[in-house]
């Protein structure tokens, strides 16, 4: 890729691709965790799992499969343990990417096994077994789905949801979905997926940030006929109490190994595109998804060196010093209100003529949901020009989304 030079608006002023990220507040920073203080809400948000009593009578006498992971808790107790204590006949557990306990690296194979605490069979829904097989559910009457989502299209828990709903619909079994708040539910942004690029990191024609809870999303999967053959799942959503799409949500349990903080969850939709590049996004440091850098970036005044650690056993740029940017305190800790392309465009600028930037073209296209974003980056499009190409798709999606919203 040739150098794009400094991108400028028509009035000649710098767009800020470098200046925004090279100011001193982003150049320097320790690798210690910070604690974000959120404004208090008027009322405590009550999760669907905390209202399990609403469906308890419907579960009694049924053979129940739980679809969950480490976020599936009722108070401080795991949902599986809660249901067993309530004499519900839980017969097995299905777990998504990262496993039942949420400790497995992204993309790593998860083997089915037995839960040491309960003795229940654990069936992994990842790798070449993304959808429950007929033999997996022959002894199941109903599913209870309870997984914390983060509101980004390429976060694979919504793909697992799709396959659970599809398997349930085909076998005429009901799904009870215990809803949870979306920490990125306050905005909608990004290119809408072109279904020619459908994959496990993007199954539906939605933007990267879709602004819906997982319960609302499930209703949309049903309502838009996205299951195979346009079949419909028998779905019941146990809704949240005291939640709006403007609620600022702080999760107490990391939804996956490398989303350790509220800031990482907020930055995740904008930084995940780096997964298909040679740029490190901080895996193998104390702050994954709060940093990005590369050995061939110029000296920015901030650097980090990825090392193996739980959740990142083989991090990109392992043991290599990366110059880069610490985004922990960027924007003074304000939560994003749109997808930020500045990070990707700045990286492309820094690596022009010095190193390969996008080294997994097919995977990048799957994450982006199209092949045009990669081309736009290579052709040095400005951020506002790229964003303009998303508008029509976003306008259409917002009309679709509106039909399925459960919360103001």
Q: Could you explain how this protein is built, in words?
A:
- With 408 residues, the chain is of the alpha/beta class.
- The chain is built from 13 helices and twelve strands.
- Helix 6 (157-170) links the parallel strand 7 and strand 8.
Descriptors:
seven-stranded mixed β-sheet, 408 residues, alpha/beta, 12% strand, three-stranded antiparallel β-sheet, 25% helix, 12 strands, 13 helices, globular
Roughly what fraction of the amino acids lie in strands?
5-15%
Query: In order across it, which strands form the biggest sheet?
Result: 5-6-4-1-7-8-9
Global structural class: alpha/beta
Mean pLDDT: 89
- Gyration radius from CA atoms, angstroms: 21 Å
Helical segment tally?
Answer: 13
Largest sheet entry: 7 strands, mixed
Question: Brief overview, please?
Answer:
By secondary structure, the chain is an alpha/beta fold. Helices cover 25% and strands 12% of the residues. A 7-stranded mixed beta sheet has the order 5-6-4-1-7-8-9, with helices on both faces. The protein has a 3-stranded antiparallel beta sheet with strand order 10-12-11, with no helix packed on it. Strands 2-3 form a two-stranded antiparallel sheet.
Question: Which SSEs are present, and which pair or pack?
Answer:
Elements: H1 19-22, H2 24-27, H3 56-59, E1 63-68, E2 73-74, E3 77-78, H4 79-85, E4 89-95, E5 113-114, E6 121-124, H5 134-137, E7 142-146, H6 157-170, E8 174-178, H7 214-223, E9 234-238, H8 262-271, E10 291-294, E11 303-304, E12 322-326, H9 342-351, H10 361-368, H11 372-378, H12 383-388, H13 391-402
Parallel strand pairs: 1-4, 1-7, 4-6, 7-8, 8-9
Antiparallel strand pairs: 2-3, 5-6, 10-12, 11-12
Helix pairs in contact: 6-7
